[in-house]
């Protein structure tokens, strides 16, 4: 019975990976479409009517940050990030190396998250008049992206090893 339950639960990391990938792709697409629409509206308003959106620059920056910090965990999850192989390693050593990199990324992401939360707390006292909020909003895409990056690294860590031929 335990073997059957273990076999049934073995697919949860892959299901979580697929769900995260779909959500990240949708987030990247939404951020890109919103950024393009905002910039098009800014150009139309500025050159067509001589007036821009007072908050356009701030929101555009947030969308650009969101785009980058949603893309990072997506690329990490798919192992499509930039990498450079200096040495040819045996398949088993390469898998071990990949897991070590994921573990290092997980630790680095946790440390980065601590500093980002401290920065968000410090920015609470700076007002962004155009948006009617405090400047801690600038750290939100980075905080969310770091959490998602940690999740992607964790899902890569718990992923069962691929067969030696694949």
UniProtKB/TrEMBL annotation:
It is a multi-pass membrane protein. The keyword Transmembrane helix applies. Keywords: Cell inner membrane, Cell membrane, Membrane, Transmembrane, Transmembrane helix, Transport. It holds the Pfam family DctQ. Its main location: membrane. This is TRAP transporter small permease protein. Residues 38-159 form the Tripartite ATP-independent periplasmic transporters DctQ component domain. One of its GO terms (cellular component) is plasma membrane. The chain crosses the membrane at residues 26-47, 59-77, 105-126, 138-158. GO terms for molecular function: transmembrane transporter activity. It comes from Hasllibacter halocynthiae. It is found in: Cell inner membrane; Cell membrane. Belongs to the TRAP transporter small permease family. Part of the tripartite ATP-independent periplasmic (TRAP) transport system. The complex comprises the extracytoplasmic solute receptor protein and the two transmembrane proteins. The lineage of its organism: Bacteria, Pseudomonadati, Pseudomonadota, Alphaproteobacteria, Rhodobacterales.
